[in-house]
Amino acid sequence: MNVLPSAVQVSLLSGVRHLPDNVTLEGPDDARMAQSVTRILGIRRFEQNADFVIHWSTATQWPMADEDEGYRLHVSAAGIRVDASSLHGALHGLATLNQLNQNGTLPCVNIEDAPHFSWRGLMLDPARRFLPIALLQEVIDGLAALKLNVLHLHLSDDQGFRFESKAHPKLASIEHYTRAELKALVAYAADRGVRIVPELDMPGHVTSWLAAYPEWGNQQVSPTQRFGVHPGCLNPADERVYTAIESLLEEVCAVFPDRYVHIGGDEVHSSWWRDDPAVQAFMKQQDLADTTALQAYFTRRVVTMLRNRGREVIGWDEVLHADLPAEVVVQSWRGATSRDRACAAGHYCIVSSGFYLDLFYPGDLHRRFRPDLSEADLVSQEDGLLTDARFQHVAEGMKWTRAWRAVQPIERTFPRGKILGGEACLWGELVDRECLDGRLWSRLPDIAQCFWAKNPEQDDEVLRERWPEIVRTGVDRNRSRLAKVVQGNATALEALELCEPVKWYARLLGEVALNARIRGSEMPQARPYGTATELNRAVDFLTPESLLCRDVRQWSVDTVARSCARWAKLDGLNDVPDDVRPVFGAIAAAARTWLDCLSGDLSKEEASRVIRELYRPYGEYLPAVALVLIEHLK
Q1: With left for phi above 0 and alpha for psi between -120 and 50, is residue 27 left, alpha or beta?
Q2: What are 312-359's pLDDT values in tens digits?
Q3: Sign (positive/negative) of CA torsion 531, 534, 539, 541?
Q4: Could you tell me the pLDDT band of residue 523, with boundaries at 50, 70 and 90?
Q5: Selected residue with higher pLDDT from 523 and 262
Q6: DSSP state of 237
Q7: Which of 171, 227, 437, 491 lies at a C-alpha separation of 20 to 30 Å from 93?
Q8: 51: CB partners within 8 A, 6+ apart
Q9: How far apart are the first and last CA of the chain?
Q10: Long-range contacts of 592-596, Cβ-Cβ distance < 8 Å, separation of 24 or more
Q11: pLDDT at 484 > cutoff 70
């Protein structure tokens, strides 16, 4: 069945029927449902006693965190019926119906479906590189098509502040969202069953705040284009800071109706606090043992502000502390064990570890990191990356993350928390409005599959065949941009599509900072990228996983041989960007080696050794096809 994410229960019946041009709506807020039916299915006639009926029992103005999103879909020769408890569950039924629709023809089928996780999200980071509203609307359309229900917007960071504040007008960066734009975006998302959760990151990652209002910090800062951890922090000993935050959160709550507000809390570099005599005196007065306790004090103050406004707080897993209020939701990003530390301490948890889309992982890897796997299984998945051939070039760096497992658990008497679901994260250092398509759409279907289905389909090709049209459009649009980089040269385009970007943080950190991180002394090593760096090279438009290599895996030996004869000449290509020449040369060498094995001039063992040695970084490119050629030697 052409359904993605996979439905819980599907019974295929005999026969097909045509999608009618009229429908009967049975439920509250039918005007909104009518708009959705027209948008999704193109039907504009709404009549009584049609043989296509949509029934739902409840409707809320905004999607709710815990609402019933299940639906039932019945298609037979006698008629079509969608039944759901909520309007948003019915929208999921329409999304499935749209996927089944092939030029107006539907298979006869019974489907009963509901999500495995209530939180199925995507985080985007317009703070570092601004993303226009129209692009966010398209992302929301894609989330709805894939039955994802949360868009988490990271609106502030060291490099930018994208929320319009009337109380603090100097905060907003030149490119920012007005409150009217954000209110309209919230309504747009709600009509599609998507919640928008805002994030203002604090008390660290606030260089943009302090450049505008230096009195909120302990030292002076300058605006920054640099990526990586910055020392700037809000001053938790100054009541003016809490007054400013309260007025800012008042504005945020007026724009975003969702129950949750994200306050960040990650990567707080506390040297300012340790070095400031006034902060040290404040800590002594409040009986705060160290700077982690001071951050917990700050977090409690902000939690109270939002609690008084009927909101609940989410923070990245660094907020975990014995004094953290139990109702704070913890978003786990630092490995498998942070999730279980949060749950053991009584907190609900959103899992993002394993779902970082900016690390250039392939889709099959993301699907392995189920949010509710046991800790032992998740740790095993993490350790498995170190022996995966695709990650050997960054394996030493990835070992650095094992330090996260050493953090001691928190002893609490609260009942154990639960896992709400998962959230993919696409941080903005290497993503702008032009290259978002390739970075997002080629793997978001895998994430949606992982978050919705209890026992998800794992076959790459099956899932790719089920991609909704909006996903295909995004991937095709990205391919067109890649073609422009090589001025439409078909041979060069094919060669690039046999490549992938280097994995993990290798692109973002660069060689110097990556080696410093391995030694545990990264900050403040220079990185090769900043906000002013243009993202217009071929590597910026490569999909993190080569889709062409997926196809090559299925080719016959004869097809591979003909292709290798063509690829063997890649190192002679003219008029291609200088940064791709080395990786083209590696592909050519691998192709010649494979042909030598085919002709009997090399043994399989020797050919495999030679090709494997060619699989390494060439600048920021990997010759992904090398590993596929090795598979074809077996």
Answers
A1: left
A2: 999 999 999 999 999 999 999 999 899 999 999 999 999 999 999 999
A3: positive
A4: low
A5: 262
A6: T
A7: 437
A8: 20, 78, 79, 80
A9: 33
A10: 592/564, 592/568, 594/560, 594/564, 594/629, 594/632, 594/633, 595/561, 595/564, 595/565, 595/568
A11: yes
Tokens for 383, please give them: 């350790």
Give Cα 95 distance to the centre of its chain.
Answer: 21
Peptide bond into 409 cis (omega under 30): no
* Residue 489 to residue 467: CA distance in whole angstroms: 28
CA angle 592, 597, 603 (to 5 degrees): 135
Q: Is the pLDDT of residue 458 over 80?
A: no
Mean pLDDT over residues 453-480, rounded?
Answer: 91
Instruction: Quote the mean pLDDT of the chain.
Output: 95
Q: What is the DSSP string of 593-630?
A: HHHHHHTTSS-HHHHHHHHHHH-S-BTTEE-THHHHHH
The dihedral over CA atoms of 436, 439, 444, 450, expressed in degrees to the nearest 10, equals: -140
| Contacts for 73 with CB less than 8 Å, ≥ 6 apart | 80, 81, 82, 93, 96, 97, 109, 110, 111, 113
Apex 58 CA angle, 57 and 64, nearest 5: 140
As a whole number of angstroms, the distance between CA 525 and CA 513 comes to 5
As given in the structure block, the two tokens for residue 472 are 């295909």
Residue 196's identity, in one-letter code, is I
Give the torsion through C-alpha atoms of 393, 396, 401, 406, to 10 deg.
160
From the number of C-beta atoms within 10 Å of its C-beta (0-12, 13-18, 19+), residue 504 rates as buried
User: Domain-by-domain residue ranges, the chain?
Assistant: 9-113, 486-631
Tokens of 249: 């959160």
Radius of gyration of the chain measured on its C-alpha atoms? 26
Residues 263, 314: contact at Cβ < 8 Å?
yes
Per-residue model confidence as pLDDT tens digits over 351-402: 999 999 999 999 999 999 999 999 999 999 999 999 999 999 999 999 988 9
572 three-state secondary structure:
helix
Pick from 93, 91, 92: nearest CA to 82: 93
Position 522 scores a pLDDT of 60
- Do residues 389 and 615 make contact, with C-beta atoms less than 8 angstroms apart? yes
Please state, in angstroms and as integers, the Cα–Cα distance from residue 319 to each residue in 292, 396, 408, 544, following that order. Answer: 9, 28, 14, 31
Backbone phi, then psi, for 335, in 5-degree steps? 85, 170
Q: Where are the beta strands (DSSP E) in 19-58?
A: 22-26, 45-46, 52-58
Q: What pLDDT digit, counting tens, does each position of 550-583 carry?
A: 999 999 999 999 999 999 999 999 999 999 999 9
Give the distance between the most distant pair of CA atoms in the chain.
80
Give how far the C-alpha of residue 112 lies from the chain's centroid of Cα atoms, to the nearest Å. Answer: 27
Architecture of domain 9-113: 2-Layer Sandwich (3.30)
Determine the Cα angle at 340 with ends 334 and 344, to 5°: 135
